[in-house]
Amino acid sequence: MRILYVNEAEADAYLLGALREAGHVVEVAADKSDGPVMAAEHDFDAVVLDWSRPSEAWARRFADRATTLVMICSRGVARERVEVLRAGVDVCFVRPFAFAELEARLQALRRHGSPAAKACLDFELAAAQRTITRGGNEIELSAVEFRMLQHLAEHAGEVVAIPTLRSVAWGDDIEPAAEPVHRCAARLRRKLASLGARTSIEATFGHGYALRPIPANP
């Protein structure tokens, strides 16, 4: 997932490291006032608000901006947590909490969210034959291409980080370079286009790739 992290005071270095280690692409707002602007201008899968106490006002500023909105607080009473949940927050954590639970909640919210993104997959993947099929037309994929496209399809609509794609497609033995991922993404993009798929692989510069529907012509 591509996540925007916005903190009220000091960033939680452990949390940021854990999110990135889990394969997420995390961008940090330099100042909390930059958060709403970044959320409005970029396509994030989730926003994580790291506040001292649950803030209904700040929750409302992001409620319409993100697929998933998470608030993490250092303290807070039940009434305050209820208020932010009603204001649009999907889940509210109070420290201390287990990162594994946060990651599981993010994945659960992803599964139940963005049905439109998953509906955009207008092709079929056959693992046994390593083929992609649409409208009776079929194209063979290499093992690397199949693994990469399958992973993007499983996370349709999300930006998947380049290191994650590299590991999924080639394993952990490949040299840590982005170029093989870029070349594979280009080949897959051409193959999808040759099938007339209404889905393409979009690049997010410096971060990774996402499988998303091609915008309809006005």
Describe this structure in words.
By secondary structure, the protein is α/β, with parallel strands linked by helices. It folds into two domains: 112 residues, 3-Layer(aba) Sandwich (Rossmann fold), CATH 3.40.50.2300; 97 residues, Orthogonal Bundle (Arc Repressor Mutant, subunit A). The protein is 41% helix and 23% strand. The chain has nine helices and eleven strands. A five-stranded parallel beta sheet has the order 2-1-3-4-5, sandwiched between helices. The protein has a three-stranded antiparallel beta sheet with strand order 6-7-8, with no helix packed on it. Strands 9-11-10 form a three-stranded antiparallel beta sheet. β3, α3 and β4 form a beta-alpha-beta unit. α3 runs parallel beside α4, α7 crosses α8 and α7 packs across α9. The longest helix has 16 residues. The model has no long low-confidence stretch (mean pLDDT 85).
